[in-house]
Specification:
Helix content: under 10%
Strand content: over 45%
CATH class: Mainly Beta
Distance between the termini: 21 Å
Strand order of the largest sheet: 3-6-7-8-9-10-11-13-14-15-16-20-21-22-23-24
CATH superfamily: Porin
Order of helices and strands: HEEEEEEEEEEEEEEEEEEEEEEEE
CATH architecture: Beta Barrel
Radius of gyration: 22 Å
CATH topology: Porin
Number of domains: 1
Structural class: mainly beta
Number of helices: 1
Length: about 425
């Protein structure tokens, strides 16, 4: 490696970016970047949650939420390539995730300054802005997957084998994706309510178009930023869709019925630079998922529990909460950033998030909310986040599914990022 660097030369600039120039004309180059997110967390666990076969009501744990190492560059003026290694959720439950695996491996060809095509394994996806959310620029302590109903079922941490086209037309920014989803290895027994099915997944189509009224956002990455730290004025309105045939199944009498899953979304992203290095960030989204009769999916990011005993509560183990389901979702984020010291060398950003959902399977609405504060030592490249989440736990009673209690989670996160 030292020999390669000696002969190719290295340009290091732009807050720690590593760039290896591969030819004298500097048309071919390789960039290296990476990130890590560390969590110290206290979680009130759902009823019946077990750790090492012992029922627990709460837990304190330390984990690596994510780590990434990315290689990207250009083979020539129009062809770029992207290769990324990493993994999620290195905790005491997931010792086998210590080995990084391939997340991204794709090429992108720029036919025109306003039109490009790509192919490979990647996170380009439609539906909404946060169909592919940026984890390193997220407004909160973690991502919310309201626009990713199939995460870790038909994909690999949002990545799938797919072809895509992306581009701009005036102020409009678009992406359209045709993906071959991964085979579902978590098939459950068919029942009265829809669940992910047992068929080999068919091709998935998704698209997203946004109109940019003010500053334009970059299309270099599939991931959308959660906050630009008051360095841009942005007002975007977007609409999108996702469709996958025969995705879920359920019983109709004694017959197995397969359901075509359809999702629709509309969203708004607003970031405003204010005087004295201050700024506000607002995101608002409406999503409608048709995932089959009474479909509900429970998710618990970086779940600290290993299993759950049968109870009247339906959330399941650990920090599981209803995230997506057949029905409608309103989701919003808001943040306010300002200098944290007189020299403006650091910044502080309180934020809040709310998800309000009406799922066909539940008798009551699902309300999950949170908040916290980001402390930026050097922007997103070095930041500390103290985050809080309050979630509902649902139970069955008299053939109804209603909220039975609420649980809390506190997360202290440190993020380190180098390169882009």
């Amino acid at each position: 490696m030292l020999i390669v660097l000696f002969f190719c030369g290295i340009d290091a600039y732009g807050q720690g970016e590593i760039k290896i120039v591969l030819d004298e004309e500097k048309d071919q180059y390789l960039k290296v970047s990476g990130s890590m997110q560390f969590w110290l967390r206290h979680t009130s666990l759902n009823p019946g949650s077990q750790i090492n076969n012992s029922e627990e009501s709460s837990v304190v744990d330390l984990s690596i939420r994510r780590y990434r190492i990315k290689f990207s560059g250009k083979a020539h003026e129009k062809l770029s390539y992207h290769f990324e290694l990493g993994n999620n959720d290195l905790n005491y439950n997931n010792a086998d995730r210590n080995t990084p695996h391939i997340l991204d491996a794709y090429i992108d060809y720029q036919f025109h300054k306003n039109l490009a095509f790509g192919v490979g394994k990647h996170a380009w996806a439609g539906l909404s802005r946060y169909g592919a959310p940026s984890s390193t620029t997220a407004l909160g302590h973690d991502l919310d997957f309201v626009a990713a109903p199939y995460v870790m079922i038909y994909d690999d941490i949002l990545r799938r084998m797919a072809i895509y086209t992306r581009g701009t037309l005036g102020n409009a920014d678009f992406r359209f994706v045709l993906a071959k989803p991964s085979v579902n290895k978590n098939t459950t027994t068919i029942g009265a309510n829809a669940r992910f099915g047992d068929r080999t997944p068919e091709y998935q189509f998704s698209g997203y178009v946004k109109y940019q009224f003010l500053d334009k956002e970059s299309q270099k990455s599939p991931f959308s930023s959660g906050s630009y730290l008051a360095k841009k004025n942005i007002l975007n309105l977007g609409v999108g869709t996702m469709y996958q045939p025969n995705t879920t199944w359920y019983l109709e009498g004694s017959d197995s019925v397969y359901h075509n899953a359809t999702s629709l979304a509309a969203d708004l992203f607003y970031e405003k630079m204010l005087p004295k290095n201050r700024g506000i960030t607002i995101y608002l989204a409406y999503l409608h998922h048709d995932l089959g009769r009474n479909f509900v999916r429970y998710m618990g990011a970086n779940n600290p529990a290993q299993s759950a005993l049968p109870t009247e509560f339906v959330n399941g183990k650990g920090n599981n909460v209803p995230v997506v389901g057949t029905g409608s979702i309103l989701y919003t984020q808001i943040g306010y950033i300002r200098p944290a010291d007189s020299n403006n060398s650091t910044q502080i950003q309180p934020y809040a998030t709310v998800q309000y959902s009406k799922f066909d399977a539940f008798s009551e609405a699902v309300l999950t909310y949170g908040g916290g504060v980001n402390y930026f030592i050097k922007g997103h490249k070095s930041k500390i986040t103290l985050g809080y989440q309050n979630r509902p736990v649902f139970k069955t009673t008299e053939h109804l599914v209603v909220e039975g209690m609420r649980k809390n989670m506190f997360v202290l996160q440190y993020q380190i990022l180098f390169g882009e």
